[in-house]
Amino acid sequence: MNERCHEVHKVLDYVLQNRDRIAARICEETGKTLTDAVVSEILGVLDNLEWNIDNAPKILKDQTVHTPITLMGKKSRVYHESLGTVLVIAPWNYPFHIAMTFMISAFIAGTA
Predict the structure, then answer these.
(1) Residue among 54, 53, 78, 74 nearest 65 (CA)
(2) Residues 104, 84 contacting (CB under 8 angstroms)
(3) What domains sit in the chain, N to C, each tagged with a CATH number?
(4) What is the DSSP string of 38-92?
């Protein structure tokens, strides 16, 4: 988990360093204004990246849970594992935000 969070932090740094170039490309491809591209796409992605870095280790850690009486003597745990490939079918109106949000969430959960 820590390795994936570290890699997501690299993505965060990359988006921060290249936000002008990314915003310009969004404007070219979608016809959005620069302000709209920055506010609705770049800032949303940065917020999502930070949220994942801060919260994923807590959310995805293994948990010990109550064991039903019928399984007395056993221990119950919840652990998270990747289920495989992720497919995103999404509208075109927020291409960078939607793509990055789904890709980062899948990656941080263990789907490479």
Answers:
(1) 78
(2) no
(3) 2-108 (3.40.605.10)
(4) IIIIIHHHHHHHHHHHHHHHHHSS-EEEPPPGGGTT--EEE-----S-------S
What secondary structure letter does DSSP report for 69?
G
Determine the average pLDDT of the residues in 50-75. 92
Residue 13's pLDDT band, with cuts at 50, 70 and 90, is very high
Determine the residue type at 57.
P
Strand partners, 64: 77
Decide: helix, strand or coil at residue 26.
helix
Buried (b) or exposed (e) across 17-28, using 16+ Cβ within 10 A?
eebeebbeebbe
Residue type, 64: T
